[in-house]
Amino acid sequence: MKLQFFSIGKPHEAYIQQGVDDFTGRINKYFTAGWHIIPPPKNAAVLKDAELKKQEAKAVLQLLQKDDVLILLDERGKQFSSPELANLLQQQANESVKRIIFLIGGAFGVDEEIKQRANIMWSLSKLVFPHMLVRLILAEQVYRACTILRNEKYHHV
After folding, report:
1. Which of 53, 80, 83, 117 has the highest count of CB atoms within 10 angstroms of its CB?
2. Is residue 157 very low, low, confident or very high in pLDDT (cuts 50, 70, 90)?
3. String of b and e for 19-29 (b: at least 16 CB within 10 Å)?
4. What is the chain written as a DSSP string?
């Protein structure tokens, strides 16, 4: 199973890049994982929020494959404990899912079309974080879930 992390926005800041690379490398010991940073449309500054989200949705949908499981990070989504996230990954692996896509939307959220396409909407927290920090938190939490699946010592109960 492959894990792909999609994020709409600017490339990682250097201080985030190191952490994201570290945790992504660790995840790769369990599953093939990688990042795809989707740049905002060139005319994003002049677009109304709804049009911006539509253009971002179009870019995301072009990258998705029919059988991809899309996990949308959204503040209104379901919250999972770390063991629950591990169970979710195991369940997808048991169902022979080829690719899970974790999507961090743009600054104004995502278009309704993306929400409809999403298999799961996941909220990391009731708090709002900068998108770059969400990338780091997401990578760490997926790594943590992988260690839980292997009963390794990283996660303490």
Report:
1. 53
2. low
3. bbeebbebbee
4. -EEEEEEESSPPPHHHHHHHHHHHHHHTTTSEEEEEEEPPPTTGGGS-HHHHHHHHHHHHHHH--TTPEEEEEEEEEE---HHHHHHHHHHHHHTT-SEEEEEE-BTTB--HHHHHH-SEEE-S-SS---HHHHHHHHHHHHHHHHHHHTT-TTS--
Count CA atoms closer than 13 A to 118's CA, side-chain side. Answer: 20
- Overall average pLDDT of the 12-41 stretch: 94
Q: Token digits for 15?
A: 């201080």
pLDDT the model gives residue 72: 98
> Is residue 16 left, alpha or beta, with left meaning phi > 0 and alpha meaning psi from -120 to 50?
alpha
pLDDT digits (tens, 9 = 90+) for 74-119: 989 999 999 999 999 999 999 999 999 999 999 899 999 999 999 9
Residue 154 and residue 131: Cα distance in Å, rounded? 25
Task: Assign domain 2-149 to its CATH architecture.
Answer: 3-Layer(aba) Sandwich (3.40)
Q: Which residues make Cβ contacts (< 8 Å) with residue 150, sequence separation at least 6?
A: 30
Main-chain dihedrals φ then ψ at residue 17, nearest 5 degrees: -55, -45
